[in-house]
UniProtKB/TrEMBL annotation:
Pathway: Amino-acid biosynthesis; L-arginine biosynthesis; L-arginine from L-ornithine and carbamoyl phosphate: step 3/3. InterPro entries: Arg_succ_lyase_C, Argininosuccinate_lyase, Fumarase/histidase_N, Fumarate_lyase_CS, Fumarate_lyase_fam, Fumarate_lyase_N, L-Aspartase-like. Residues 12-306 form the Fumarate lyase N-terminal domain. NCBIfam families: argH. The keyword Aminoacyl-tRNA synthetase does not apply. The gene is argH. GO terms for molecular function: argininosuccinate lyase activity. Residues 369-437 form the Argininosuccinate lyase C-terminal domain. PANTHER family: ARGININOSUCCINATE LYASE. The keyword Cytoplasm applies. Its EC number is 4.3.2.1. It comes from BD1-7 clade bacterium. This is Argininosuccinate lyase. In the N-terminal section; belongs to the lyase 1 family. Argininosuccinate lyase subfamily. Belongs to the lyase 1 family. Argininosuccinate lyase subfamily.
């Protein structure tokens, strides 16, 4: 064997073999082999188009299709030894095709470059990932909405600054999570819409001299249309960045939900119970039941946000058109996809299993003077200026702290010490039930509104 680079597909102009370290350093097959399905789909569409254009005859097309389908099966069965010398998934598959069907295999790459090939493959791969993620996101939302309906009347303390603020219902809280996820869903759909254009035909950067039909390959691959500009088609990875931005926001949301689940399962809050199957124990402290699943979701948010930064920095100084830098898009993107899928599955499985724990939430709502605003509003309705009402309620709360009583537990006499305007009807607003029921407007926490909001949310996710 000579020193020339005969084993590669581009060895023609080279006079010495690639350094073995450089071979490994520049290869992507270690991680891009997962694109094999989409690479084969892209190649079959390209070959069909070349056949229509008169570049491949019918026998050649059929040999290519059969050969590629065999390679797909080999890959599925794990019967391919991916080769570092062949650098990436595209050249591995092409070389194997040529091994199988001979010289016809070498014709497949007519009018195409790995630059438009890889740009096509990642879009196809990401599109399938988006569709799978969309289904899982909807499953999670559906679980939240069902739980919101179940717990439309369940009262808990609502917090600001993590201090008890006003009573809300647990159903209302869960629907707040659903709203975050609904926006994430619509961000995901936006991303899909923008990325679903076919770069195939851009070739290396300038297009090709063959009579190709880009509309045909675009439609065979389920793209909305061909991309407009060949230079842009092979170079930008903004669609991957946009997906990662979606993923970062989604994980930021799931991380916040996780944080709440973790707090709520603690003995100090004692609001909810997570079934044992979502928790683990401690090897030293026998009493422990740790909320590992939400903790890990919270933790994994970091890597996804990190990948967004990686991709942005990867792209920022690149001149047009394709640069090898772009090969670095895959590992962050794949890891983001995997992480999002796992975290969504964890949440979609876990949410329907959340149970509220006895009256822990209810008792907590009673403890923090959560109906203080209701008392102030009551006084205002009776003609007291809001600032004066605020002062009166402040004194009542101070008394409550000293005497260890919630506002709803005080007698009328006790309350009248602070304002003689207060009468018996005050107890309608001082109870937790009265407080939540009074917030009866779109977006409010009244059980009636929570049920209506859940019904609307259910309709939206069915679309
Ligand atoms: N493995 C390469 C990538 O992921 C494929 C494109 C290579 N193109 C090239 N001109 N070297 O980006």
């Amino acid at each position: 064997m000579s020193d020339k680079n005969e084993s590669t597909m581009w060895g023609g102009r080279f006079t010495e073999a690639t350094d073995t370290f450089v071979e490994r350093f520049t290869a992507s097959i270690q991680f891009d082999q997962r694109l094999f399905h989409h690479d084969i789909n892209g190649s079959i569409a390209h070959a069909k188009m070349l056949n229509k254009a008169g570049v491949l005859n019918d026998e050649e097309l059929s040999a290519i299709e059969t050969g590629l389908e065999e390679i797909r099966q080999d890959a599925i069965n794990g019967n391919i030894e991916w080769s570092i010398q062949l650098e990436d998934v595209h050249m591995n598959i092409e070389a194997r095709l040529t091994d199988k069907i001979g010289i016809t295999g070498k014709k497949l790459h007519t009018g195409r470059s790995r630059n438009d090939q890889v740009a096509t493959d990642i879009r196809l791969y990401l599109r399938d990932a988006i569709d799978a993620i969309a289904i899982e996101l909807r499953r999670l939302q559906s679980g939240l909405i069902t739980q919101a309906e179940i717990y439309a009347d369940a009262i808990m303390p609502g917090f600001t600054h993590l201090q008890t603020a006003q009573p809300v219902t647990f159903g209302h809280h869960l629907l707040a999570w659903n709203e975050m996820l609904e926006r994430d869903y619509s961000r995901l759909m936006d991303c899909r819409k923008r990325m679903n254009q076919s770069p195939l035909g851009a070739a290396a950067l300038a297009g090709t001299t063959y009579p190709i039909d880009r509309e045909l390959t675009a439609s065979l691959l389920g793209f909305d249309k061909p991309t407009e500009n060949s230079l842009d088609s092979v170079s930008d990875r903004d669609f991957a960045i946009e997906f990662n931005a979606f993923a970062s926001i989604l994980l930021m949301h799931l991380s916040r939900c996780s944080e709440e689940l973790i707090l709520w399962t603690s003995a100090q809050f004692n609001f909810i119970d997570l079934p044992d199957r979502f928790c683990t124990g401690s090897s030293i402290m026998p009493q422990k039941k740790n909320p590992d699943v939400p903790e890990l979701v919270r933790g994994k948010t970091g890597r996804v946000i990190g990948h967004l930064t990686s991709l942005l920095v990867l792209m920022k100084g690149q001149p047009l058109a394709y640069n090898k830098d772009n090969q670095e898009d895959k590992e962050p993107l794949f890891d983001t996809i995997d992480t999002v899928q796992d975290c969504l599955k964890a949440f979609a499985d876990m949410v329907p299993a959340i149970q509220i724990k006895g009256d822990g939430m209810y008792e907590a709502a009673k403890r923090g003077f959560s109906t203080a605003t209701d008392l102030a509003d009551y006084l205002v309705r009776k003609g007291v200026a809001f600032r004066d009402a605020h002062e009166i309620v402040g004194q009542s709360v101070a008394y409550g702290i000293d005497s260890g009583k919630d506002l709803s537990e005080m007698t009328l006499k006790e309350l009248q010490q602070f304002s003689d305007i207060i009468t018996d009807d005050v107890f309608d607003v001082l109870t937790l039930e009265g407080s939540v029921a009074a917030r009866n407007h779109i977006g409010g926490t009244a059980p009636q509104q929570v049920r209506a909001a859940a019904a609307r949310a259910r309709q939206l996710i069915a679309k």
